[in-house]
Amino acid sequence: MNDLVRCYTVSVETEGGLASCDLSSIIMTLNNMPQRTLDWATSWDVARAQIERAAPH
């Protein structure tokens, strides 16, 4: 989790701070980043798998 927080912090600061950054773009970008805590899947992959498991067949 600390790595993800650091990535958000750096991204926001790089884009000029919270008042001027494109937060939606940052979120979309970081959701495409593989994460060790998700066994190197992306947030999108995990969300998709959960939706597919919950969907009635």
Indicate the overall shape.
Answer: elongated
Number of strands: 0
H/E topology pattern: HHH
> What amount of the residues lies in strands?
under 5%
Rg value: 14 Å
Q: What is the helical fraction, as a range of percent? A: 55-70%
As residue ranges, the low-confidence spans are none
What's the mean pLDDT score?
A: 94
By secondary-structure content and strand pairing, the structural class works out as: mainly alpha
**Main pleated-sheet profile:** none
Rounded to the nearest angstrom, the distance between the terminal CA atoms is 34 Å
- Oligomeric status: single chain
Q: Can you tell me the number of structural domains?
A: 1
Number of helices: 3
Detailed description of the structure:
The protein is mostly helical. It has one domain. It contains 3 helices and no strands. It has helices spanning 2-14, 23-31, 43-54. Helix 1 packs antiparallel against helix 2 (23-31). The longest helix is centred in the first third of the chain and has 13 residues, at 2-14. The radius of gyration is 14 Å and the shape is elongated. 0% of the residues are buried.
Which key terms come to mind for this protein?
single chain; 57 residues; mainly alpha; 3 helices
How are the SSEs placed, and which strands pair?
Layout: H1 2-14, H2 23-31, H3 43-54
